[in-house]
Amino acid sequence: MTPSQRSDSAPRARRAPLHLTTAATVLVLAGCAIAPRPIDPGQALSGAQLDRQALTLSTQAPQGRVTLEEAMARALLHNRERRVQMMESAMASHQLAVSRYDMLPQLAINAGYMQRDRLAASSSGVFENGQIVRDLNRPTYSVSADRQSQSQSLLLSWSVLDFGLSYLRSEQSADRLLIAKERERKAVHNLIQDVRSAYWRAVSAQKLLKKTAELRTRVQQALEDSRRVESLRLKNPLDALTYQRDLLDIRRSLEALHKDLLDSRTTLATLMGLPPSIPFELLELGDADYKIPRLQADIATLERSALALRPELMELRYQGRVTESEGRSALMSLLPGLSLYGGTYRDTNNFLLYNNWTGAGTSLGMNLFNVFKAPVVRELTDAQAQLAQERRLALTAAVLGQVHLSRVSLDITIEQFESSADYLQVVRKIRDQAARLRTAERSGELDLIREEMAELLADLRRDVAYAELQNSYGRVFVTAGLDPLPNLPAQVDVGSVSAAMRNKLKAWDEGEVGVVLKPISSQARPWSGPGEKSLAIASDSFSLAGTLKIEARQTGGAALPDWLKFDPVTQTFRGNPPAGRESYAIEVKAVDAAGAQVSDRFELKLVDVNDAPQGGALQTVTATEGGKPISGRLDAVDPDGDPLKFALASGQTMAPGFSIEPDGRWRFNPDDPAWRTLKQGARRRVTMQFVATDPHGGVGQIALTLELTGVNNPPEVSAPGEVRLDNTAKIAEGRIDARDVDEDARLTFSVLGQRQIDGFTLQADGRWRFDPAHPGYQSLAAGETKNLFVPIQVSDEVGGSTVARLQIAVTGARK
To answer: Which of 479, 503, 531 is where one domain is finished?
Structure first.
């Protein structure tokens, strides 16, 4: 340093203390300038009176007996903001309570069996001068285990995880708003739980306060009687004082019990936002009203619901905005864990000196490479994200622990309540026996009072156990993150909120504890255009675990339309929608093996979905000429299931003998005269085009072909007229009038049976001649007539024939 630099640094060194002194003086003077302004008692009282008046005006006195749902509704409407503030200030303590659930012990029982075909014999050698010396000529073997052995162990172990992760504030203002809403949800959950617990205790207090007052009166009367006896020296003073001491002990217990009962009602009134001076009545429970709630949900479903809905987890998700792919396994692999274990063991090995023993130990595990996993530079930039991630994982494990604890607690409280109820029944029987003995003057008043006091306490224990049962039952839903009132009704008052909560609690009792993870409305796209459509619901749409029974119906309970089918195995809707409707409201309900259920509604929208009718393959109808009528129906369907109308297509000609109805039914008569011209074996095909029309204007084409096979028709013969002549007339000639309806057929004529008729001849073409002057008729007397019947067979080329009868009357003319 040069001399000039040293000279410059000296003044700066002297000015530094001066600057510090000046700054300190300014700060002190600024502090002295702020004078405290205390609030005087008058102002405090005035403000408190206004606050009290506001609370009184916002609260209405109950009308009638207060139900549990009404108590919850009043607490939500009148104390919600206060409870939210309380929960925000107590957040740290709640997180501490959450972290303790994972330190629960695990009690495991194990049993084993071992068998081997040969003994586990082994030999040993002597280590001498750095070498192993063995007598190979005379080896000896030792056995330390049986061929068969059984082992059992009962092990109690604890696994300790490090949940000491601090909170990390999110810098996103939008997430802060969502965080505040999740905290409010948590406050509502806790408030509802407090109301549930206080309500059932207050119900017990309402019932027991009357009994307590009556018993206190009897104790006081017995105490006064004893003192009177003592003053008159009618009894041993020591006995009288002992009697009074017992009575005073009972009275002291009654006074403490009376105070606790009064505190229960006061606590409930405070939670409901009612001033303690306002009287109210609760439900009165008989022995039959103590019903045990049954939870219709398994642990897996509650776990999934908790992971999806718990407000604490949602708060952390908003803070960290991290994915859910890092779950419970990541927490166990990254965090150090301390395990403590101890247990008892048993082994049937006869070579053991002690077949039973106990053991204990501890282990600490940690992946040290996690410390060096990321470079220092990355640690600096990713510290906040990693902290938020680890905190979410830790809380996830704690939430799962709470779900398990709540389920176990419910089972325990059910057993405790059943035991308390049984105990109460026994105590009541004992009290009845004591009352009979007192009536028979075989025992004193003190014994009866003592038994009545025992009954009162047993009744209280039963009510406390029931309150704990209800509390544990409600805690299951709280730990699962289910909201008792997801959405406030349009009319926010005690009645409407109470009705909404009643419906929600009833739904929980029926098992509606599942969560819609992926709304179907977000998966369903409008079905557009003709043809078959399908909609597959994602397998993880619901929080229910295990095998699910899924059904779908229209909203309102009606079955799905006939055209729409739902496959519960593949969770797929499939169908060809008809026209004429724009949408369908559908509800899908899923139920797991434990009875837990969840439902979701969505609207299936349809756009231009009309399908034209479709005809089947070309229909061919075969018939035989002259056969019986045939009927059928045109092969056409409407994919939408609409009714169809059928008609002959424009420009088409209806085949002879064919007719059709509008509904598609047709009838064909092969015996129509128009078909009789077909020769035997000849075929004729006629194809007709028809149209099918649906109600929405869709048109489809259908073709139908008639294939007719001809048969031989017998010749048609006109009946010949009667021929009359005498035996002197000239030869008569004629022709049999016959024709064959089959095309190009040739006919032959013959006398049936080749009969010979005098004077009659028949040509093959049907011409005939008759000579009445044949000698066979000359013997006829004058006026005598001989009738001749000539059977004439008309045959076609293929053997068809018709017989005509020609009648000839010959009369004698000679005298």
So the answer is: 479
d(CA 573, CA 454): 64
Q: How far apart are CA 408 and CA 467, in angstroms?
A: 16
Report the alpha-carbon distance of residue 269 to residue 78 in Å, rounded: 11
List all residues 6 or more positions away from 720 whose beta carbon is below 8 Å from its beta carbon. Answer: 734, 736, 737, 792, 804, 805, 806, 807
Q: Is the same domain home to 401 and 464?
A: yes
State pLDDT tens for residues 515-547: 888 888 888 888 888 778 899 998 888 888 888
Do residues 567 and 430 both lie within one domain? no
Alpha helices in 90-172, H assignment, sequence order: 91-99
Distance CA 216, CA 211 (A): 9
What does residue 365 show for φ and ψ, rounded to 5 degrees?
A: -125, 135
User: What pLDDT, on the 0 to 100 scale, is given for residue 585?
Assistant: 92
- For residue 692, give the nearest of 626, 735, 644, 648 by alpha carbon: 644
Bridge partners (DSSP) of residue 806 are: 790
Distance CA 393, CA 165 (A): 10
Query: What confidence tens digit (pLDDT) does each residue in 646-668 have?
Result: 998 988 888 898 999 988 899 99
Looking at the structure, tell me whether residues 210 and 317 fall in a common domain: yes
Residue 7 confidence (pLDDT): 42
∠ CA 531-534-537, nearest 5°, is 170
**Other CB atoms within 10 Å distance of the CB of residue 171:** 9
Q: Comparing C-alpha atoms, which of 515, 489, 519, 518 is closest to residue 501?
A: 489
Maximum Cα–Cα distance across the chain:
199
* Predicted TM-score (pTM) of this structure: 0.53
Domain of 467: which CATH number?
Answer: 1.20.1600.10
309 and 387 both lie in a single domain: yes
Instruction: Please check whether residues 686 and 725 belong to one and the same domain.
Output: no
pLDDT in tens, 71-121: 888 888 776 555 555 455 444 333 444 444 445 556 778 888 888 777 777
> Are 727 and 758 within one domain?
yes
Q: Where are the beta strands (DSSP E) in 625-674?
A: 630-633, 636-637, 645-648, 658-660, 665-668
> What is the residue range of 747's domain?
716-811
571 assigned to some structural domain = yes
Q: What's the burial of 490, exposed, middle or buried (CB within 10 Å: 0-12/13-18/19+)?
A: exposed
User: Of 473, 460, 463, which is closest to residue 417 (Cα–Cα)?
Assistant: 463
φ, ψ (nearest 5 deg) of residue 356: -130, 135
- Whether 574 and 654 share a structural domain: no
Q: Are residues 250 and 300 in the same domain?
A: yes
Q: Exposed/middle/buried for 595, CB within 10 Å: 0-12, 13-18, 19+?
A: middle
Judge residue 230's burial from the number of C-beta atoms within 10 Å of its C-beta, 0-12 exposed, 13-18 middle, 19 or more buried. Answer: middle
3-state secondary structure of 812: coil
Q: For residues 245 and 227, give the distance between their C-alpha atoms in angstroms, rounded to a whole number.
A: 11
- Listed residue (641, 521, 535) closest to 581, CA to CA: 641
Number of C-beta neighbours around residue 242 at 10 A? 13
Beta strand pairing status for 723-726 and 801-811? parallel
Total domains in the fold of the chain: 4
